[in-house]
Amino acid sequence: MSHPPGSVNRVPDSEVLVRARGLTKRFGNFMAVDGIDFDLCRGEAFGFLGPNGAGKSSTMRMIGCVSPPSGGELTILGRDPVRDGSAIRARLGVVPQEDTLDVELSVRENLLVYGRYFGLPRRVIRERTDALLDFVQLSDRARDKVDPLSGGLKRRLTIARSLINEPEILILDEPTTGLDPQARHVVWDRLFRLKQRGVTLILTTHYMDEAEQLCDRLVVMDHGTFAAEGSPRDLITRYCSPEVLELRFDPDRHELAADKLRDFPAERAEVLADRILLYVSDGDDALAAVRSTGLEPLTSLVRRGTLEDVFLRLTGRRLED
Amino acid sequence: MAPAAVLTAWPSSSLSIRALQCWMTVYRRIWRSSIWSSVLGPLFYLGAMGVGLGTLVDRHGTASLGGVSYLAFVAPAILASGAMNAAMSEASYPVFGSVKWNKIYIAAQASPLRPSDIFRGHLMFMTMRIAMNAALVTVYMWAFGATQSAWVVLAWPAATLTGLAFAAPIAAWAVTLQIETSFAYLFRFGMMPLMLFSGTFFPLSQLPAWLRVIAYATPLWHGVNLCRMLSLGDVDLPVALANVAYLTALAAVGIWAGTRAYRRRLYV
Fold this sequence. Notes:
The complex is a heterodimer of chains A (321) and B (268). Chain A has eleven helices and 13 strands. Chain A has 321 residues and is an alpha/beta fold. Chain A has two domains: 5-237, P-loop containing nucleotide triphosphate hydrolases (Rossmann fold); 240-315, Alpha-Beta Plaits (2-Layer Sandwich), CATH 3.30.70. In chain A, helix 5 packs parallel to helix 6 (181-196) and helix 8 packs across helix 11 (307-315). The model of chain B is unreliable at 1-10 (pLDDT under 50). Chain B is elongated. Chain B has helices at residues 4-9, 12-59, 70-91, 93-100, 104-109, 115-143, 152-174, 183-197, 209-217, 219-232, 237-266. In chain B, helix 3 (70-91) packs antiparallel against helix 6. The interface between A and B is medium-sized, with 35 and 31 residues.
């Protein structure tokens, strides 16, 4: 395989757990994943950032050995996912996008059923269940049925369940989508602890703050390919100015202001439906300069560049659209 | 870290058993809600059809029934068609729901279980439920004095085989569905006519010849005929073997199709 060395962001001298070269996934005429290359190393947290339909979940399903690749190479834990899927899955943990808990059963029974899928003896499952429920702070709900649990508690139970086989790689497909901010922070806290314990994480998200908090390294995915890759800090320095000035105008004047600001001496201007973003080195200076042209924004905000800006720059679209 | 060599060496049968264990755990939770239809349903049928309607039928002579009471005639048919009904309810909504609603299959798929293990484990559970219901009906038949032979103990596995011959192909079909409304066709155009025209409530000799040919081709007739011969102690061996062969072939085709269909649906 000939690939430019820079395209594969590999941490030197560490064990590669997942290796993909020219990986594709096709559904009929639609290329969901269009030739991606990456290495996932032991102990790192690797993120796939992108909007819905970017090909993140298709990639996760291929790594989870529940979807055969249409082309390219994929090696997981040194094995072929098509031939050795069952053996590989025995060493993976999966937190799917939608909860697949059995709501008829109790919290504990869900872990029991799942542990049995992995062929674990009941005694081992019991011990691990105690520790895992403690870890996700669900011990007091152990005997309750799953059905009435809130979305956040269900997510935590799904995470506990995915750890029952002490996986070497934990795959999380949009782990906090649909959760309220508070529940999301609890999940992040638990995932961060797992990372500290050395569990290898691979996750997809369309939340930039999630990617910033959890990922050592990430790829921005769009239309089945990688638009960029690097650490969150890297990507922001590379693709974004130090500061961003967000301006909101009276809707009637929005167009007019947009026209004027396109020629404004900023690194870049981005006109959204409701706001105008100016990428600048100093936000306050820029705001003063905008006002001196006679434009008066309804609201203004100076902030640091984020992954959201990186994404906008790379794809021309916003993440959560 | 689990030794990978051991993991690949696991026989597939043990993987199906793990899927079965999941269904057993679920069943332990919900058996109370299903017990009444299992226990009382066949009791009502035997009482109403066998005893109630039977009294009326027997008064007009039972020559066309082969000289046996209507209760003795209809009881093994209730056994066989009950197995078919159990198969249809176990292999329809629960299979569909395991993909779409509670996602039992999707959860199991992330484990070492393969689509074929998930299918076979669930099919084992369906067969177990069919066998449980059939055992109960067999006991009722004996208690009602509706059997004439000790061979009736073989009517129990015969009914279970009948159920399996329905469950496997129906599950293979149910797993492919995108919407659950298709099940209405199964119950309306599958279950109903089979129940009525497979020699269940009246002998096939009452049907015109062309309809009789169709009836002989339906799986339920083979199940009913087999159970009836065993219950009445009047076994025509070549016919019985043909019945068993037909039902076994249907089950085998269903298992083959199910293995394929589950893989296509779950592994995409």
